[in-house]
Amino acid sequence: MVSDRFQVNKDTVGSWVYRKRRANDSKKRVKLAPQETCFMKEKELSSDEKDLHIRELERQLSRETMRAECLEKMIEIAERELKIDIRKKSGVKQSTR
To answer: What are the contacts of 40-43 at 24+ separation with CB within 8 A?
Structure first.
């Protein structure tokens, strides 16, 4: 059973499934205009707008890269200070409760 395998309460798994099914049902009922279905289509932007957009994406990427590095450092410090393994080690069986 999923709840046993991942050591999660059965009611929690049930609520996740319920919410996912409701979200999928509501998505099926929504009719989108053809132009809204392809969000990857390139918009017609001026050169200045493209440059601005690229700078914004670069700023976001820089921020997320810094965030990931900070989280990695926090995990390293917590593992060292608390003397416990926080990261999941690949190939290691988890203990059953």
So the answer is: none
